[in-house]
Every structure is written in structure tokens, then in C-alpha cells.
């Protein structure tokens, strides 16, 4: 009989803001491209506004709707032996990282993450394929606690 499935904890809620800022950058690019397309269509005497309306709808989706949906499909859990990371909606990915395979750990924060008080935990594991595993959107102190717990488990390991 399989053991009870591990319950994954959600990421820090402030990560939604990070996702929104990242999406806003992409939305600005989409809107700029739409502006150029509108100018070209205007010069060709084509109907104007259609590309702009579509671009605004895409930008709204990217910034308002998509970030909370992406956030809702992330989770992680740490036990004595493994770190579990789950993400994805259509294709659900559940990654299990045995702590004994971790070679080193990074904590990263870009300017948006730093401003929102979250960090990304990056685990480098033995092997070549999928040897880099990330857990984004952790509160900075939580990311440090997870890092220190994994580091302590590695140091206590008999290997």
C-alpha cells in the first residue's frame, strides 16, 4: 500500500506580485509590437484598432488573470530525506530531490523578488540531466531556513 501522498505547501503570496511584474514587462513588449503593427496598418489604409484591442486583451490576461493561476499550481514540501516540488496545471510536474544528491545550494533574488521580499532556492544536484532544481517564490527567511535545513542534513549525512 502506498503511503499517504505528501501535502505540498503553497509559495509565499507575494510571489503573485513578482509574476505580475514579470508579466507586465512582457505585456509592454506585446503592446509596443501592437503599436508598430497599428502604425503599419494605418499607413496601408487598413482598419485600425483591431490589433490594439487584441494586444490589450492579451496584456490584461498576462498581468491580471495568469499570475494567480500560475501561483495556485505551485507547491513544495521538505521532509527528512527529500524536497518535493510540484507545479503545472495542464502538465503537472512533481519533482523529488533526495537531499543526499544535493551538491550545493543557491539563494537568488532579482530586483523584483528583492522588492517583494521573496527569493528563489536553487539546488544543484549530482548528475547532468535536470541537475538544477528551483523553488521560486519563497519568503526570504523561509528560503534561508530551507537552505539551512538541507545543508544541515547534508553535513549530518554519513557519506
Annotation keywords:
alpha+beta, 47% helix, 159 residues, 3-stranded antiparallel sheet, 6 strands
Explain this structure to me?
There is one protein chain. The protein has 159 residues and is of the alpha+beta class. The chain contains four helices and six strands; from the N terminus they run H-H-E-E-E-E-H-E-E-H. It has helices at residues 15-43, 50-72, 111-116, 140-156, and strands at 75-78, 82-87, 93-98, 102-108, 118-125, 132-139. The strands form two sheets. It has a three-stranded antiparallel β-sheet with strand order 1-2-3, with no helix packed on it. It has a three-stranded antiparallel β-sheet with strand order 4-5-6. A hairpin with a 5-residue loop joins strand 2 (82-87) and strand 3. Helix 1 runs antiparallel to helix 2 (50-72). The model has no long low-confidence stretch (mean pLDDT 91).
Number of DSSP E strands: 6
Percent strand? 15-25%
Instruction: For the record, give the distance between the C-alpha atoms at the N and C termini, rounded to a whole number.
Output: 30 Å
Let me know the largest β-sheet.
3 strands, antiparallel
- Evaluate the radius of gyration: 21 Å
Based on secondary structure, the structural category is: alpha+beta
- Counted by DSSP, the helix tally is 4
Elements, N to C (H/E):
HHEEEEHEEH
User: Which range best describes the helical content: under 10%, 10-25%, 25-40%, 40-55%, 55-70% or over 70%?
Assistant: 40-55%
Strand ordering within the main sheet: 1-2-3
Task: Return residue spans where pLDDT drops below 50 for at least 5 consecutive residues.
Answer: none
How much is the average pLDDT?
91
Which outline best applies? elongated
Amino acid at each position: 500500500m502506498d503511503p499517504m501522498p505528501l501535502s505540498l505547501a503553497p509559495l509565499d503570496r507575494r510571489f503573485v506580485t513578482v509574476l505580475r511584474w514579470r508579466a507586465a514587462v512582457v505585456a509592454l513588449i506585446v503592446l509596443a509590437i501592437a503599436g508598430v503593427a497599428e502604425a503599419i496598418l494605418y499607413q496601408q489604409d487598413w482598419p485600425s484598432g483591431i490589433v490594439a484591442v487584441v494586444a490589450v486583451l492579451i496584456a490584461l490576461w498576462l498581468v491580471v488573470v495568469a499570475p494567480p493561476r500560475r501561483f495556485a499550481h505551485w507547491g513544495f514540501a521538505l521532509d527528512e530525506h527529500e524536497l518535493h516540488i510540484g507545479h503545472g496545471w495542464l502538465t503537472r510536474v512533481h519533482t523529488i530531490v533526495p537531499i543526499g544528491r544535493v551538491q550545493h545550494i543557491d539563494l537568488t533574488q532579482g530586483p523584483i523578488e528583492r522588492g517583494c521580499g521573496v527569493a528563489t532556492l536553487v539546488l544543484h544536484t549530482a548528475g547532468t540531466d535536470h541537475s538544477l532544481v528551483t523553488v521560486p517564490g519563497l519568503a526570504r527567511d523561509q528560503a534561508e531556513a530551507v537552505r539551512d535545513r538541507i545543508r544541515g542534513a547534508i553535513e549530518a549525512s554519513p557519506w
